[in-house]
Write a structure and sequence with these properties.
Layout (H helix, E strand, L loop, with lengths): L12 H4 L30 E5 L20 H5 L4 E3 L10 E3 L7 E3 L4 E5 L14 H10 L11 H5 L19 E5 L2 E5 L7 H4 L28 E7 L3 E6 L17 E5 L4 H10 L7 E2 L7 H6 L4 H4 L2 E4 L3 E7 L9 H10 L2 H8 L5 E3 L26 H10 L6 E8 L8 H12 L3 E8 L1 H8 L8 E7 L6 H8 L19 H11 L4 H16 L4 E7 L1 E4 L25
Parallel strand pairs: 1-10, 1-11, 15-16
Antiparallel strand pairs: 2-3, 4-5, 5-7, 6-7, 8-9, 9-10, 12-19, 13-17, 13-18, 14-18
């Protein structure tokens, strides 16, 4: 999934809840020095303030693109499974939510069966049934409710052309509910990652009797620990406790604050300054879409109190150069290898803000175990590039005097693949005799140009983040030949359609053991890396502040952010 970078850009609610995982435990806080250790059994009370840049533009579970339960969405919506909400590697695993377990696969992982827990209710006290989950999923297919994750349309048997329950009330036959506690999914191909997909917000139950179509987002019916008290679209969202939620059936969400008030549309510098200063109610403040700013980064070494209120996480994402081998001179692997040797990853990282917010990458998969990361570096350029090796390869390719190429990039630096990163690439390649002409494209048009095969340039800056912590959503959209979309919205920019790669993807998808799948995804990444179809530059790190009174601000292992369902202000 393409996620707007939280390093400096404004995020919508959907992006704030985008899936992620962390390769290291975040910084944890138990509050002021000398205070008692955090106890989820006694953490209840107070009002948590959430200060965000991105507007709260979507509040319908069918329209929210997030997995793992998201952050703000997870306060309202429970799903069949969810992330297990632990720091570090453990947090990259799925856990049962409304379901009793992670599902039972059969028929070679083409059938998945789930049973619901007892005593699970909507905010009005109505019991949640399997029919509510089926209906919630079917709503996400309705063209009136666009924006949700698209996987089920591809995965479910005969669901590709389904138009939602408003046009086809008979529903999707591949989703079966033999009784109120059982739901069965029939897939058209093996999918070992189904328990991870079942964390997506589309799996949240929706009571058919309360569905108001496009107006449902004005007051969605809660299945989580909080419900909507007021919602001013694009501006604010106030949440209060759901009286029919019980921790007995939901041990993963601590639901500490009595109220959660979310304000959006704020300037990132203002957010960081308010949280850092911590005056009044800002002492109870956090943010889900703003990382620490340069002013606060500069203070960390000289301000120990502020340094204790910083959480470190990693969203599994890669910034990279994408090649289109159908465009000369990038059809020659030696040219692609030369550029791989010539890049200066130190200046690339510095363009994003330095090592606190980004790390150098030589692999396409970011360094998270859950994705299957295996270290490799086929074109060792060191920290600052190897222009001599690049020149040697260019001479072999017939360019002894160098060559001129064009690099497409976004017109501003909001997403961190704009002019700053482009200039660092331009400077590095110049030392290898490669003249780089920069072609900035407006952010709103960038994907229209670079993600359509007929207009795709030979070289462009790109970003990719995982929809859930697995190699599948990272490698499949980028390298599976069957994912090429000629009309636009194509992410396989190399336009690679290798039968052996496609077959290996199918084989890994059939594996239901995450550890076995991880090893295979890592090996596939290493195999693909030899073709120099991309130049990995850096992976994302997230560094966020939290207020003076906030406790248990530990980034989860899925998205690299601290979990609102577990923080406390008491």
């Amino acid at each position: 999934m393409r996620r707007i970078s939280v390093l400096s850009a404004a995020l919508a609610l959907v992006a704030a809840g985008a899936a992620a995982c962390s390769s290291s435990a975040g910084h944890s806080s138990s509050g002021a020095a000398g205070s008692a250790a955090f106890d989820p059994k006694t953490c209840q009370g107070g009002t948590l303030e959430v200060l965000n840049q991105g507007s709260i533009s979507k509040l319908d579970p069918a329209r929210i693109y997030t997995s793992g339960g998201g952050n703000i969405p997870s306060l309202l919506f429970r799903t069949l499974t969810t992330r297990n909400r632990e720091p570090g590697q453990d947090g990259a695993k799925a856990a049962p939510d409304l379901a009793t377990d992670l599902g039972t696969p059969s028929d070679g992982a083409q059938t998945w069966t789930y049973h619901l827990k007892d005593n699970i209710f909507f905010e009005d006290g109505t019991p949640i049934t399997s029919a509510d989950i089926k209906y919630g999923i079917e709503r996400s297919f309705a063209p009136e409710l666009p924006g949700g994750a698209p996987y089920l349309r591809d995965w479910l048997v005969n669901a590709a052309n389904y138009q939602g329950p408003y046009k086809d009330p008979d529903g999707i036959a591949a989703i079966q509910t033999p009784d109120a506690k059982t739901i069965i999914f029939k897939l058209r191909k093996p999918e070992g990652d189904f328990p991870l997909l079942a964390t997506a917000t589309q799996f949240a139950p929706v009571p058919k009797a309360k569905d108001t179509g496009v107006d449902y987002e004005k007051h969605p019916i809660s299945s989580g620990p909080y419900m909507v008290a007021s919602y001013d679209k694009g501006k604010s969202l106030d949440l209060v406790r759901n009286p029919h939620w019980s921790s007995a059936s939901d041990t993963l969400r601590y639901a500490c604050p009595d109220k959660i008030d979310i304000t959006s549309g704020l300037n990132p510098a203002v957010i960081n300054q308010r949280i850092a200063t911590g005056t009044g109610q800002d002492a109870n403040a956090v943010t889900t879409d703003t990382t620490i700013g340069p002013d606060q980064l500069a203070q960390l070494n000289s301000n120990p109190a502020l340094a204790k209120r910083v959480a470190h996480g990693e969203f599994p994402a890669t910034y990279y150069i994408a090649f289109n081998p159908k465009v000369k001179p990038f059809d020659d692997i030696r040219v692609r290898e030369a550029i791989s040797y010539a890049v200066n990853r130190t200046t690339a990282v510095n363009s994003a803000g330095g090592t606190a917010v980004a790390g150098a990458s030589t692999t396409f998969l970011p360094p998270q175990k859950a994705l299957g990361y295996q270290p490799y570096d086929y074109f060792p350029a060191g920290a600052t590039g190897d222009p001599a090796k690049a020149k040697q390869l260019l001479a072999q390719a017939g360019y002894p005097n160098g060559l001129t190429v064009t690099l497409f990039h976004q017109a501003d630096d909001a997403n961190n693949f704009g002019p700053k990163l482009a200039a660092s690439i331009q400077d590095a390649l110049k030392a290898a005799g490669i003249t780089v002409n920069l072609n900035p494209v407006d952010d709103n048009s960038y994907s229209d140009v670079t993600n359509k095969p007929s207009t795709e340039p030979g070289m462009s800056l790109q970003y990719w983040g995982a929809d859930w912590p697995s190699g599948a959503p990272f490698l499949i959209p980028i390298f599976d030949g069957r994912q090429i979309v000629t009309s636009g919205g194509n992410f396989n920019l190399a336009q690679l359609n290798d039968p052996s790669v496609n077959a290996e993807i199918d084989a890994i998808n059939a594996i239901t053991d995450p550890q076995q799948a991880q090893a295979r995804w890592g090996a596939l990444d290493a195999k693909l890396g030899q073709q120099a179809l991309t130049v990995p530059l850096m992976y994302e790190k997230d560094v966020a502040l939290f207020g003076k009174n906030v406790k248990n601000a530990v980034p989860d292992g899925w998205r690299g952010q601290y979990d609102l369902a577990r923080v406390s202000v008491k």
